[in-house]
Amino acid sequence: MAQPQRSRPDSSSLAEVLDRILDKGVVIDVWARVSVVGIELLTVEARVVVASVDTFLHYAEEISKIEQATSEGDLEDLEELDVETRPESSPQSASE
Amino acid sequence: MTNRYVYGVVEAGDGVDREIDAVGGADRIYTIEHSRLGAVVSDIDTTEPERTDEDARRHDDILRELMDGGERTIVPMQFGMVFDNDRALKNVLRGGRPAFRRALSDVEGRVELGLKLVREEGAEVDDDAVRGAVDDELEELAADSVEEGLFSDRLVLNRSYLVDRENREAFDEAIGRLEAEFEEGGDLLVQYTGPFAPYSFVDVHIGAQ
């Protein structure tokens, strides 16, 4: 039998593209995209948020900073807000 | 036109500004940066773009082109994510930053590939044995995988794989071996598709309260 060849994936299928771009990918609700009054408080659902209680508490703490800033009207100062997951609470390390 | 159609999110500095056929008849994509992230966008005159085949292709083609060469990591949006003002877009980049950062690191240097195994009409196939053979070949080469729906009883396997660029060639060869094995008997058809932006491996949903 001949040596099997390297297979090349087919990128031309519209059905495969539609399956992905209509059902997968990042979703942002219309209310977060079309702001009617000022700045809404966002809800973010992702693996990073539910990774661990530690991550969640850190996240909640940062969210409260946003709420405070919103009520004080100085959102522009929040540019450097850091709500990143700390390494020790990443999903990988939490599951290991 | 102040509406922005968003294709995906990149690290700040990985942005683009170029002429290209874009969704809704636009001819340019560019990047709006905030909170050390960038949203790759084009201008559009509606907030509810029609899902035409042509624009579906453009959305996907643009993401594919941005990924090409592997120097840029992009977190792909679902089709139709239009913002009616830049303030809302920046707010989402800011509030969603940890989720976008996590997603960027999950898919860095990786592409999505699709695999469907379809049973030929009337053929008898041992589904478990087939799936076992696929796992033996592909599990070690993929960084992640997700099961897609078996929407037909002839579909033996339907999966998306997240594969490191450096494993692409080995992955293609493994698929080649599976094709040789399965298609020789004439019972199974192998549909290997992609590479796609990692749509199936970014799990982010942003809403507003």
UniProtKB/TrEMBL annotation, chain A:
Residue ranges, compositional bias (Acidic residues): 73-82
Subcellular location: Gas vesicle shell
Chief location of this protein within or outside the cell: other
UniProt KW Phosphoprotein keyword: no
Pfam families tied to this protein: Gas_vesicle
Residue segments, region Disordered: 68-96
Keyword terms, alphabetized: Gas vesicle
One cellular-component annotation, GO: gas vesicle shell
HAMAP family according to UniProt: Gas_vesicle_A (MF_00576)
Functional note: Gas vesicles are hollow, gas filled proteinaceous nanostructures found in some microorganisms. During planktonic growth they allow positioning of the organism at a favorable depth for light or nutrient acquisition. GvpA forms the protein shell.
Membership in a protein family: Belongs to the gas vesicle GvpA family.
Subunit structure: The gas vesicle shell is 2 nm thick and consists of a single layer of this protein. It forms helical ribs nearly perpendicular to the long axis of the vesicle.
Protein name stated in the entry: Gas vesicle protein A
Organism in which the protein naturally occurs: Saliphagus infecundisoli
Lineage: Archaea, Methanobacteriati, Methanobacteriota, Stenosarchaea group, Halobacteria
TrEMBL record, chain B:
Keyword Hydrolase in annotation: no
Intracellular or extracellular location(s): Gas vesicle
Main location: other
UniProt name for this protein: GvpL/GvpF family gas vesicle protein
UniProt lineage: Archaea, Methanobacteriati, Methanobacteriota, Stenosarchaea group, Halobacteria
GO CC terms in record: gas vesicle
Organism of this sequence: Saliphagus infecundisoli
UniProt cross-references to Pfam families, sorted A to Z: GvpL_GvpF
Keyword list, A-Z: Gas vesicle
Signal sequence interval, chain numbering: none
Family: Belongs to the gas vesicle GvpF/GvpL family.
Membrane-spanning segments: none
